[in-house]
Write a structure and sequence with these properties.
- The protein is built from 5 helices and no strands.
- The radius of gyration is 18 Å and the shape is elongated.
- 31% of the residues are buried.
């Protein structure tokens, strides 16, 4: 089934956005590792992996519909240095997730308008995942704010998060 060119472009853009989020979350994971927060590093590594999986779903959808494309060039990917607090970093995580949800909702709305049932189905699946990711990111932000921006507060937050995460297998 062919896809409307405008919809195809929105999906190509979303594919690239998912890959960009993969890179962002890898950077966060590396920063958490550098700060010696192994569970936070693992959490963001898993988030990065999920974004890559999401990108592959959009990619497969485009390929199944005969669309050839390239990943967009990326702007400079954010880095997070010792000047950024954990709360600053998690606030970015929330922003990235909310932007992704809005973009997918936009694709869904256009697919609905153009009666593209296969794309609406994919968007519905992706929006369900986004709701979970937004809830997780928002909860993480609320918890991090409870501990404050001081070094001791950030360390206590990381320790609390460490206890919340399942132990490594």
């Amino acid at each position: 089934m062919e896809i409307n060119p405008e919809l195809a472009q929105l999906v190509v853009d979303q594919h690239s956005a998912e890959i960009l989020n993969f890179l962002r979350y890898r950077n966060i994971a590396m920063e958490m590792d550098r700060r010696n927060y192994p569970r936070l590093a693992k959490f963001f590594e898993e988030q990065a992996s999920e974004e890559l999986d999401h990108g592959k779903l959009w990619e497969k959808h485009l390929q199944a519909r005969g669309v050839t494309f390239n990943i967009h060039p990326f702007p400079t990917v954010e880095t997070f240095n010792e000047l950024a607090t954990l709360t600053d970093i998690i606030e970015k995580f929330v922003i990235f997730e909310k932007e992704t949800t809005a973009d997918i909702q936009n694709i869904y709305d256009k697919a609905d308008e153009l009666v593209d049932v296969p794309l609406k189905a994919l968007c519905t699946r992706m929006l369900e995942e986004q709701m979970e990711e937004e809830e997780t990111s928002t909860t993480l932000l609320e918890i991090s704010k409870m501990y404050g921006p001081s070094g001791a507060g950030q360390c206590h937050f990381a320790t609390t998060f460490h206890k919340m995460m399942p132990k490594d297998e």
